[in-house]
Amino acid sequence: MSDLGALLRKAREQRGYTLDDIQEVTKIRKRYLEAIETGDYKVLPGSFYVRAFVKTYAETVGLDAEEVLRLYHKELPKPAAPDTPAVEPMIKKTRRSDQHRDRWGKVSVTMLMWLFPILIVAVIYVYLSQNADKDPKEVDRSPITTEKASPSESSASPSPTLPASPSAPATESSTPSVSPVTFTLKETKKSIQYIEVSPAGAHQLQLEITGRCWVGVNEGSSKGKSLLSKGFEQADVPQTLSYDLTGPLYVNVGRADNVTITVDGTPFDDGNKAGSSKFVFMPAETTLP
Question: Who wins on pLDDT, 85 or 52?
Fold first, then answer.
């Protein structure tokens, strides 16, 4: 067994996954997964697929795919150089067709160069003709007529405002406004998406587990204090996990399609994919970890 295969197998077994589970998540055939673990890359359909399969495998078991490929790049086979295509013997016909296409391309560019300024002039003309028809006097008179009041209305005393009864429901003006939660992608680094949560201040992050998956939660970053590292089976769901979002919170989901992430009741779009997804949620005005 190769060092890379041993690393992937160890990570898989730590999360309680079987090769059948990895096959279901990644859609990679089981015999290809076995070949990756044993280092028998000849079984794979081609050297081009080796890096793609290894990267997907690593992300599914919670490893940093880019770091794994960098550390074990010498062990992976190099992709074969593409074959040089044979030169077609019909040189004259190819040149004539190319000249024909070049001629039409030049004609098209010339037509566009003439049509573009004509289009601009037409737009300006339409704009000026529409605005020229407006009478500024009529616009000025409209607010004057609306401000006039009849003598009966000016002499009438304003009606007193009655106090609301204790049993009457509160009006919209007395209800405090709550700013909605918004998410902003600040940057993506090493397959980790850094999400800013607005407005600033403390929030409540919830993970709703709806199917078989693996979830990891750490304070600050992936190397911070572990709050959760667990694989969930069908017998464990559904259930909801809550965490205080007062600072950066790292969330690693093995099956995003089986986990719903919300902040203060507002759902977050995590891509809803079967593969691994990694996020760092940060309240606004928080420094990146």
Answer: 52
Dist. CA 225–CA 207, nearest whole Å: 18
Give the end of a domain, one of 19, 54, 71. Answer: 71
Backbone angles phi, psi at 257, to 5 degrees: -75, -10
Question: Binning pLDDT at 50, 70 and 90, where does residue 100 land?
Answer: low
Q: How crowded is residue 173: how many other Cβ atoms within 10 Å of its Cβ? A: 5
Phi, psi of 260 (to 5 degrees): -110, 125
- State the maximum Cα–Cα separation within the chain, in Å, rounded to a whole number: 100
CATH number of residue 8's parent domain: 1.10.260.40
DSSP at 274: S
Domain that holds residue 223: 182-283
- Confirm whether 201 is domain-assigned: yes
Give the global pTM: 0.40
How far apart, in Å, are the Cα atoms of 259 and each of 8, 56, 94, 270, 273? 24, 19, 56, 9, 10
- Calculate the alpha carbon distances from 228 to 15, 121, 216, 250, 253 in Å: 13, 64, 5, 10, 11
Q: How far apart are CA 249 and CA 259, in angstroms?
A: 16
